[in-house]
Q: What sequence folds into this?
């Protein structure tokens, strides 16, 4: 657990070089671009490293296990957490399709992804789970009266008709296909949650808005609505009402990846702040010579190392454990916020300016406490096994 294998070290080095050479210089441009902007050249370059197809199951041509994914995402997030989040969202959609067990769909979609990647033509997926008034209660086992869903799926013979609106869909505006979670319950209750594979070129799919966000702007966040979208029964990813089980499985992976992204953001903020303390001269020498500054840097480095180790432990669990992944996500994202805050503090007035780069890490770090389940929700997930053991949950 504490030493990377030779193969993992090679992956880390190649991702570090790619991120430093390509992602680094495009992060600021993506951060200041209009909502919905993506860098297609960066996505094409990602094809060269297998980052588009990496999370496809190994038996279907994928190349990255959860640990490899965590290593890659940390290195990319070191320069831009938003682009790392976009890659993560695509990978989680692939995992949703893989978890469905639909061999026909997997063969069709995964083969297309791999073939197009070889031609540097990224084929992307996205998860469509959250709605404006429904999110955490879809997977939080302690919610007894969840909100009613907007997206419904009505069965008509061998076809389902999907209607409603989804929000906060990472990469939804550029995805070629979606894993949409809708309810088949007439009362819109999440107990009817069911997963569907939906191509975005289908009639009735409309992107309605791109959401401006405070951070992670390299990952576009879309709202879209489905207007009588018809999909065959063969596109159903779960049994009717079994969508929550699939989301629970995905949440363990998603939170582990969110933790890796948070570690990368924290590392980037730390290195920026550390360099500033070497360059900034006060009292005849660099401010790093002051013990107070050294103590801050020491705490930042310690927290990052601890967050990485917990993330790697979560990534190497087999199978992935929801409680452990939630621990990693909470600790790593809280660390990212603390480290980014301290980086701004170390840089003083300059740290508050757009030119410094510290404020971007600060904004990106805060987002990691919210996406893939808020840290408050994750803490409930951490405690759920304990409550079960004590007989305090149904």
A:
């Amino acid at each position: 657990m504490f030493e990377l294998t030779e193969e993992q070290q090679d992956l880390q080095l190649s991702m570090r070089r790619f991120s430093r050479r390509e992602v680094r210089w495009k992060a600021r441009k993506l951060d200041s671009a209009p909502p919905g902007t993506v860098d297609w050249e960066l996505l094409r370059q990602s094809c060269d490293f297998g980052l588009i197809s990496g999370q496809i199951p190994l038996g279907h041509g994928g190349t990255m296990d959860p640990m490899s994914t965590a290593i890659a995402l940390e290195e990319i997030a070191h320069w831009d957490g938003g682009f790392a989040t976009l890659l993560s969202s695509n990978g989680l959609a692939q995992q949703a399709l893989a978890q469905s067990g639909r061999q026909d769909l997997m063969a069709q979609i995964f083969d297309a992804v791999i073939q197009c990647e070889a031609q540097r033509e990224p084929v992307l997926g996205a998860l469509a789970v959250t709605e404006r008034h429904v999110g955490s209660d879809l997977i939080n086992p302690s919610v007894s009266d969840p909100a009613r869903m907007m997206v419904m799926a009505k069965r008509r013979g061998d076809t389902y008709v999907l209607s409603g609106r989804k929000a906060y869909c990472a990469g939804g505006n550029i995805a070629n296909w979606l894993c949409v979670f809708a309810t088949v319950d007439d009362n819109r209750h999440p107990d009817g949650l069911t997963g569907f594979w939906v191509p975005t070129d289908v009639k009735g799919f409309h992107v309605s808005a791109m959401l401006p966000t405070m951070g992670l702007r390299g990952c576009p966040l879309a709202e879209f609505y489905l207007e009588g979208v018809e999909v065959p029964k063969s596109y159903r990813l779960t049994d009717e009402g079994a969508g929550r089980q699939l989301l629970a499985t995905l949440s363990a992976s998603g939170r582990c990846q969110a933790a890796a992204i948070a570690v990368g953001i924290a590392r980037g903020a730390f290195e920026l702040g550390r360099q500033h303390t070497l360059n900034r001269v006060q009292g005849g020498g660099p401010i790093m010579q002051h013990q107070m500054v050294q103590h801050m840097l020491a705490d930042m480095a310690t927290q990052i190392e601890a967050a990485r180790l917990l993330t790697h432990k979560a990534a190497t669990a087999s199978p992935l454990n929801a409680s452990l992944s939630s621990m990693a996500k909470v600790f790593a994202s809280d660390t990212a916020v603390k480290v980014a805050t301290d980086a701004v503090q170390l840089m003083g007035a300059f740290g508050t300016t757009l030119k410094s780069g510290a404020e971007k890490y600060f904004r990106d770090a805060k987002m990691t406490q919210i996406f893939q389940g808020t840290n408050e929700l994750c803490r409930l997930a951490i405690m759920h096994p304990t409550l079960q053991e004590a007989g305090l949950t149904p």
In short: The longest strand covers residues 159-170. The two ends are 35 Å apart (CA to CA). Residues 6-124 form a domain with the Butyryl-Coa Dehydrogenase, subunit A; domain 1 fold (CATH 1.10.540.10).
